[in-house]
Every structure is written in structure tokens, then in C-alpha cells.
Design a protein that fits this description.
With 287 residues, the protein is an all-alpha fold. Strands 1-2 form a two-stranded antiparallel sheet. Helix 5 crosses helix 8. It is found in: Cell membrane. Belongs to the binding-protein-dependent transport system permease family. Keywords: Cell membrane, Membrane, Transmembrane, Transmembrane helix, Transport.
Length: 287
């Protein structure tokens, strides 16, 4: 009974924008409707038009590949840092935790200002270092080509996401019984065997929920990509789902198409996360 008010507020706050998007996606809703003109119902015509365009599918494929790559790299590095924090002394652990906390707490726009300077093609730190090492990177524009653009985007997104993964996994590692690890070590288990056969099964629920959150966040990444695009890349070659919706809505004033794409992103997010949710429900039923 005490949870009902909070639950109702959350459901209303989530339901209103979703219902508004769903209704708008079935209407002819553009700039004129923003100023009071009545919208015309077109039902599923917006979806047919949107997904008949090959560009839409290129953006979807690009977004999913970038999402899975970013989530995998983030999880690998984050787990590595978590294991490092567990294995090092307290001063080293505190230094790592403070450093990652500062990186995590830095506002995205402020962090992107620094990253844009690091990869700037005229006076960027990366080009300066590589040029001094004798490599031909003087005046190299990292954001001009899609492959190098997404490499830079991957570095930035991973850098911003690793602290969350590292702290979450480290919290899970603190729950692993020390006597179990000591017994395994006495029985001759190697560090890799202890990690694979003891630690990972115990913290599997933590790894699952963190991986799920990373996939959702990386699929909906927007700010980092948009700010990198504003530095001079070709948006049509570097759009992901978030920036594509932005271009449809704000750029073209076609809010119906943007709403239809938003509904698709919602369904895609549910599809990607359904496997984990199904396992949660199965484990809950078994317990």
C-alpha cells in the first residue's frame, strides 16, 4: 500500500510520453501542428514510409553494432578495473576509485569539450603525440571518416561508462566469500579457474543487470555523437538512432516520423533486453 503512490506517479510519468509518441507517430504531425493546425490521421503510413527508406536500416545496423561493441569493451575494461581494485592495496584502490568517480561525475558537455580538443585535427593532443613519434598524423581529421569517427566515439563512450561498471562489479566482488576462494586456492585452483568457476557464477546477476543497462544506454547514445558531428563530420554517414531521430524531428520538423522512429527504438530496446528479463522471471519462478 505504501508503494502505490510512488508506483502510480512513475507509471504516469512514463506512460504519458509513450502514449503521446504513439499517437503522434500515426498522424501527419509537422511544424504546422506545433502552431495549432489539426493533425491528420495516417495510421501506419509513417512507419511504412520510414522503413521503406534504406537509410533507416543502415542507421539501425550501425547503431546496434556500435552499441554491442561499446557495451562489450566497457564490460571487459570495467571488470578488469574491478578485479584490480580488489587485488591492490588500499591507497592504490582509493586512487583508482577517486579517479573513476571524477571521470564519471564530469558533465557530458564539459567532458566532450576536452575530448574535442584532444582529437582536434589542427591542434589536438593525439595528432601532436603521433606526429612527434614520427607518424604521418599532422592535420589528420579523425572525425571526417566514419570508421575513425566511431573509433573516437567508442573511446569516449567507454571512458564515460567504465566507472559505473567497475564500481558495480567491485560491489559484487565484495560479496564473494573469502573462505571459498582460499579453499579453492589450497586445492590448487589457478587464478583463472577461481575467476571462471567461482567468482563469475556468484556475481553473475550483477554482471547481467550491468550488461543490460550498458546495452540500453549505448543503444540510445546521443550527446557524444551529436557533439562530435558538430565538429565537422558528415551526419548522414555517422548518424545513430538518437541523432537520426533528432534530424527527423528538429532538423526536418517531421515530428511524426521522429515519433515513429522513437517507438521503434523502444521496441528494439525491449527486444535486446528481453532475453535477460526472461531469465530473471525464470529464476524468480524457480526460487
Amino acid at each position: 500500500m505504501l508503494l502505490i503512490p510512488a508506483t502510480v506517479i512513475v507509471l504516469l510519468a512514463m506512460a504519458y510520453p509513450v502514449i503521446w509518441q504513439l499517437i503522434t507517430s500515426m498522424q501527419q504531425f509537422g511544424l504546422a501542428q506545433q502552431f495549432g493546425a489539426p493533425p491528420e490521421w495516417v495510421w501506419f503510413d509513417n512507419y511504412v514510409t520510414l522503413f521503406s527508406n534504406p537509410t533507416t536500416w543502415f542507421v539501425v545496423l550501425r547503431s546496434v553494432l556500435f552499441c554491442l561493441a561499446a557495451a562489450a569493451v566497457t564490460m571487459a575494461i570495467g571488470i578488469g578495473f574491478a578485479l584490480l581494485m580488489q587485488a591492490t592495496s588500499k591507497p592504490v584502490r582509493l586512487t583508482l576509485q577517486i579517479s573513476m568517480l571524477l571521470a564519471w561525475a564530469t558533465p557530458v558537455v564539459a567532458a566532450m569539450t576536452i575530448w574535442n580538443w584532444i582529437f582536434d585535427w589542427r591542434r589536438g593532443l593525439v595528432n601532436w603525440l603521433l606526429t612527434n613519434l614520427g607518424l604521418p598524423f599532422n592535420g589528420h581529421n579523425w572525425l571526417q571518416e566514419p570508421l575513425s569517427f566511431f573509433l573516437v566515439a567508442l573511446i569516449i563512450v567507454v571512458w564515460m561508462s567504465v566507472p559505473f561498471v567497475a564500481f558495480s562489479v567491485y560491489a559484487g566482488l565484495t560479496q564473494v566469500p573469502g573462505e571459498v576462494l582460499e579453499a579453492a586456492q589450497m586445492d590448487g585452483a589457478s587464478p583463472w579457474q577461481r575467476l571462471r568457476l567461482i567468482i563469475v557464477p556468484i556475481i553473475k546477476p550483477v554482471l547481467g543487470i550491468v550488461m543490460l543497462l550498458q546495452i540500453i544506454w549505448d543503444l540510445r547514445v546521443f550527446t557524444q555523437i551529436k557533439l562530435l558531428q558538430d565538429r565537422g563530420s558528415i551526419a548522414s554517414k555517422t548518424d545513430v538512432l538518437g541523432t537520426y531521430i533528432y534530424q527527423l524531428g528538429v532538423g526536418s520538423s517531421d515530428f511524426a516520423m521522429a515519433s515513429a522512429m522513437s517507438i521503434f527504438v523502444l521496441l528494439l530496446t525491449i527486444a535486446l533486453s528481453w532475453a535477460y528479463v526472461r531469465n530473471l522471471i525464470k529464476e524468480d519462478d524457480e526460487s
